[in-house]
Amino acid sequence: MEYDIVIGMEIHAELATKSKIFCSCSTEFGADENTHACPVCLGMPGVLPVLNEQVVEFATKAGLALNCHIANFSKMDRKNYFYPDLPKAYQTSQFDLPICTGGTVEIEVNGETKPIGITRIHIEEDAGKLLHESADGTLVDVNRCGVPLIEIVTEPDIRGAEEARVFAEKVRNILEYVGVSDCKMQEGSIRFDVNLSIKEKGTEVLGTRTEMKNLNSFRALQRAVQYESKRQIIELKKGHRIIQETRKWDDAKGASASMRSKEEAQDYRYFPEPDLVPIVISDEQIERTKSELPELPEAKRNRYVSELGLPEYDAAVLTTSKFTSKYFEDTVALFNEPKLISNWLMVDIPALLKENELTMETISFSPEKLAELLTLIKEGTISGKIGKSVLEEMFKTSASPKEIVEKNNWGQMSDTSELQGIIEKIVEENPKSLEDIAAGNKKAYGFLTGQVMKATKGQANPQVANGIIRQVVEGKLNG
């Protein structure tokens, strides 16, 4: 029997506000434990929450970017449950009247485009964090309590690990582009929950679903889906029943384990939040927010192809991060050769970013300096090979490319008299190359050029060197 994998996702993204959703406490990551907390965060008796207006603006912006309908009227609700990291014993969220509904995101997998439905996007507050590593036992850090989130809930339209990863990447990119979240997975700013079930191929009857929570990388997401779908298929083939449960993914082990039975909505005893007024958004506000949206990744990718002449692949790579695309565009504005810039941003720079543990957001030199480096190569001041050495130095120092070239005496050799002597010596030392050229093997010219570049440590001007090599070789053969 063959099976289909059916996946719905919930994506939690922390909103990039300076203060929390219902109080003025800071949302800054990395502070000492329990220093960003107040009576409102902790739900002390007598306190009243006040909704952060920017949270509503950011949620609206995210909804519009994901093609959702924005509700003119929505409200906050209490989601009641007990957990040690939830001091109020309830989470302020949205239940039956979310702020955004009915969106769609198109993904492309294996050359095919497919829409993934967005059921809803709602606003809620984050819970705290349990610290299990202490010698004193499990401790609670409440800094994260009240940090504003949006939860993006999809339809069960995703089929398989690859689609799940591509969808998650695209949503992350969109949220990053519109500036509503920094989407730093290493800080937990964006987290993925996966609801997965298996159904018999050809039937519309869905199987029993399990949930895996708080997957915090695309790799973990893909591996978790692969593992859980395989686990469920094996259980079904054995004749076992799938239990509706929440499972915890262990990325180190590459396996999941049961945590608890899966709750239903009624288990949370939702009711309207009595301390907060409803959220009312006018059509004028929605239109104004829509007009403020930046160019989104897909539109940017299409523009790079149609206006800048980039290949589809280059355009897709450059638009996967708003920091990469901005760096690319800023460099193009100074040095108008998009494809050449694209090559450096896709090959040489990523390798050095990884080596230096940097990202395009934290890269150590400006677009002006990259444009200066490419200008030096284009003008023949340095060779492309030397250019790569200059780039390495740019990652290590704040010096400009010109300063690096002058300091290391890396300027390209174009002096024909100096090159003439070097080339004559190399041709003399390689009689086999002369024989090959005489026999019609023109590739031997390339070998001689390589020897010249080696002898000059990459500083010879290739065009000048090639011209002299041909003159010397022809002189030898005709002499």
Q: What does this 3D model show about the protein?
A:
- Heterotrimer of A, B and C subunits.
- It catalyses: L-glutamyl-tRNA(Gln) + L-glutamine + ATP + H2O = L-glutaminyl-tRNA(Gln) + L-glutamate + ADP + phosphate + H(+); L-aspartyl-tRNA(Asn) + L-glutamine + ATP + H2O = L-asparaginyl-tRNA(Asn) + L-glutamate + ADP + phosphate + 2 H(+).
- InterPro entries: Asn/Gln-tRNA_amidoTrfase_suB/E, Asn/Gln-tRNA_Trfase_suB/E_cat, Asn/Gln_amidotransferase, Asn/Gln_tRNA_amidoTrase-B-like, GatB, GatB_C_1, GatB_Yqey_C_2, Gln-tRNA_amidoTrfase_suB_CS.
- The structure is a single chain.
- This protein is α+β, with helices and mostly antiparallel strands.
- It folds into three domains: 3-285, no CATH class; 295-408, no CATH class; 416-478, Arc Repressor Mutant, subunit A.
- The chain has 15 helices and 16 strands.
- It has helices at residues 53-65, 161-178, 218-237, 283-291, 297-306, 312-318, 322-334, 338-355, 367-378, 384-396, 401-408, 416-429, 431-438, 443-455, 462-478, and strands at 3-14, 69-70, 73-74, 77-80, 90-93, 100-109, 112-125, 129-131, 139-141, 148-154, 190-200, 210-215, 245-250, 255-261, 271-272, 279-280.
- It has a nine-stranded mixed sheet. Strands 5-4-15 form a three-stranded antiparallel sheet, with no helix packed on it. A two-stranded antiparallel ribbon has the order 3-16.
- The longest helix is centred in the middle third of the chain and has 20 residues, at 218-237.
- It is elongated.
